[in-house]
Fold:
Amino acid sequence: MLDPREAEEIPGEIDPALRGEIAHTTAAAIVHRARASEDPAVVERLVSLVEDEGLDVVAGLWADSPADTLPGALWRLYVLREWVRRDPRTVADRYRLGTAAAPVHDVVAGVVAPPGPEDVRSVADAVLSGVFAGDLAVALERAAAFCRVLATGAAFDADHVEGVDADHATHMTRGAASLVGTAEELVRAAELWRAERLD
Structure:
């Protein structure tokens, strides 16, 4: 058995308070550095952060951050962009399905109609670019609208497959609900940014 002093010397998880501080510091540094720069290459590098550093690195920084914080909002945007980057065909198909029932959100998201895989990739990149070089609140609202259209499309898609594969339909319905939740979180983050309270 280890005595208490020896046990304390064993390396373990990072202190949650320190992890939170690191998340906030890195998010603020990245956003403010990019917004202060007029170099489009800086924005381009930040948009492709996940490809360059890996999703695990970004997750290690921000995944545990609450949605109503700057690192939490950035994490959601990067995950959304990574999904679009990895599976643009499915995203484009679901987006097309969702546009008929969510036309206002479609307009806010700014995807060309009918969208193809490259179109949804371009919008995901444009939204993330807006975080670093535009109005961050507008970028968050565009991402929220994008999520709402995708959620609607996923729900329709689930209806189509329910008779064939009920388990998959249930999984898709849960995914749609998650997207609606993410949209609500992004809208709240936009409100906080406008009120200068998104830390």
